[in-house]
Write a structure and sequence with these properties.
The chain contains 9 helices and no strands. The chain has 262 residues and is mostly helical.
Length: 262
C-alpha cells in the first residue's frame, strides 16, 4: 500500500510534465500552419531532428545546460518552466481531487487554462479555439458534474448560470469603454467560463485575486523594468487563471457568508 502511495504521485507528476511538454510544442506551432502531428520535433534554430534524450521533460534541459545539443543555441526557458508548472498543477489536482473522474476533469480545465496563459504571454491574445472548449467544460460542470447545494433546483441553476455572465460583465464593460485597449475582448469570454466553473461567490473571490495580483505585478514592473509605463500592456489571462486556481484549490471565498452566492 505504501508503494502505491509513492508511485501514484510520481506518476501524476510525470504525466503533468509530459502534458507540459506537449503544450510547449503546441504553443510554438499553433496558428503557424505547422501541425503538432506533422513530423518529429526539431530545433527551431538549426532544424536538426531531436532525439529522445533531447525531449525528456525538464531533465533534458538540465542535462543539456539549456542549449541545443547540435548547434549550441540557447533553449527557451519556457520549456522547463511550463513543464514544472504543469507537473505541479497535476500533483495538486490529484491531491485535491483524488477521484479519477474529478481529477481528469479539473486537470483538463487547468491545462487548457495553462495553454491560454502561455499563448497570451507570447502573443497578448486569447485563442478562441481554446476558450470555447473551456466554456463547454464549464457547462458540463454546471449541468452534470456539480452537485446542487441546498435549496430548490431552479434556484441552483439560476445562480449557477448567472455566475458566468455577472462576473464577465465588468471585464466586458472595460473592453467596451476602451475599445479593447485597456482589456482584450477574450478576457471576458474567459471569465464567463471561470464564473460557471467556480460559482458566483468563489468566482468573485478569484476575480478579486486576479486584480490584486495583476496590480502587484504591475507595480513591481513599474519600478524595476526599464521602459515599463502605467499604460504598458500586461496580459490579464495569467492573473485570471491564477486567481481561479488559487480560489478553487485553497477554497478562497471572501463572500461565503452572503446568501445565494454559490
Amino acid at each position: 500500500m505504501s508503494t502505491i502511495f509513492f508511485i501514484l504521485p510520481v506518476g501524476v507528476l510525470l504525466f503533468g510534465a509530459i502534458i507540459g511538454s506537449f503544450l510547449n510544442a503546441l504553443s510554438f506551432r499553433f496558428n503557424t500552419g505547422r501541425s503538432i502531428a506533422n513530423g518529429r520535433s526539431r530545433c527551431m534554430h538549426c532544424n536538426h531532428t531531436l532525439g529522445i534524450l533531447d525531449l525528456v521533460p525538464v531533465f533534458s534541459y538540465l542535462l543539456l545546460r539549456g542549449r541545443c545539443r547540435y548547434c549550441g543555441t540557447k533553449i527557451s526557458l519556457q520549456y522547463p518552466v511550463v513543464e514544472i508548472v504543469a507537473a505541479g498543477i497535476s500533483l495538486i489536482t490529484y491531491v485535491t481531487h483524488p477521484d479519477p473522474l474529478a481529477f481528469f476533469f479539473w486537470l483538463l480545465v487547468w491545462m487548457i487554462l495553462l495553454f491560454i496563459v502561455i499563448y497570451d504571454l507570447r502573443h497578448t491574445i486569447i485563442p478562441w479555439s481554446f476558450s470555447i472548449p473551456l466554456l463547454f467544460l464549464a457547462l458540463l460542470w454546471v449541468f452534470i458534474f456539480r452537485d446542487p447545494m441546498s435549496g430548490s433546483i431552479q434556484s441552483y441553476y439560476l445562480w449557477a448560470l448567472l455566475a458566468g455572465p455577472l462576473l464577465a460583465l465588468p471585464l466586458f464593460l472595460i473592453s467596451l469603454v476602451s475599445g479593447g485597449r485597456w482589456m482584450g475582448w477574450g478576457d471576458s469570454m474567459l471569465e464567463l467560463s471561470l464564473g460557471l466553473l467556480l460559482g458566483l461567490s468563489v468566482g468573485a473571490s478569484a476575480l478579486m485575486c486576479a486584480f490584486w495580483s495583476g496590480a502587484l505585478v504591475g507595480i513591481f514592473l513599474l519600478f524595476l523594468k526599464k521602459g515599463f509605463k502605467i499604460r504598458s500592456e500586461i496580459p490579464f489571462a495569467p492573473f485570471l487563471a491564477f486567481g481561479a486556481f488559487l480560489a478553487h484549490t485553497f477554497n478562497v471565498d471572501f463572500f461565503s457568508s452572503l446568501p445565494l452566492l454559490w
